[in-house]
Amino acid sequence: MPRMQHEIEIAAAPEAVFDYVSTPGRWPEWHPSSLRLESGAERPLAAGARFEEDIHAGGRKAHLSWIVRESQRPSLWIAEAVGDNGVTLRLEYRLEVRAYGGTRFMRTLDYSLPNLLLRTNNALLGQRRIARESEESLRRLRDVMAAA
């Protein structure tokens, strides 16, 4: 199962960052892979909440059905998804308060692919693309939070 881990320092309080990132309806504002969220995801989502998302990640489009597994404001948010193409994902956001009042934001994405063709494509091209998209998303998140 491929794993992507990225982190960044954000000059905003953990509560503000948590509320923003745990609101999936805001993801298209900062994550380049997130295209559209269906209604119902316009607020921070608690454990048990479900939502739907259209993405374009690693060069492929998919529709994801998500469920929030854990939400501990302001330090931890975990959600899992199943895609219409058979992909499964686990997304974890960890937040830590920094001495200067900012936030250390850590994003971990684990995913599995349902067949040899997708796994081969991922190994050759997709994983590098997804890593670049994830890195870009954190830079965008930092910039959005700094402007808030």
Number of strands: 7
What would you call the shape?
globular
What's the order of the H and E elements? EHHEEEEEEH
Sketch the major β-sheet. Answer: 7 strands, antiparallel
Kindly estimate the percentage of residues that lie in beta strands according to DSSP.
35-45%
Structural description of this entry:
By secondary structure, the chain is of the alpha+beta class. It is 30% helix and 41% strand. It contains three helices and seven strands. It has helices at 14-21, 27-30, 116-147; strands spanning 3-10, 34-37, 50-57, 60-72, 76-83, 88-97, 103-112. It has a seven-stranded antiparallel sheet. The longest helix has 32 residues, at 116-147. It is globular and about 45 Å long. The N and C termini lie far apart (36 Å).
Mind sketching the topology for me?
Blueprint: E1 3-10, H1 14-21, H2 27-30, E2 34-37, E3 50-57, E4 60-72, E5 76-83, E6 88-97, E7 103-112, H3 116-147
Which tags fit this structure?
148 residues, alpha+beta, seven-stranded antiparallel β-sheet, 3 helices, 30% helix, 41% strand
Would you kindly provide a brief summary of this structure?
The protein is of the alpha+beta class and 148 residues long.
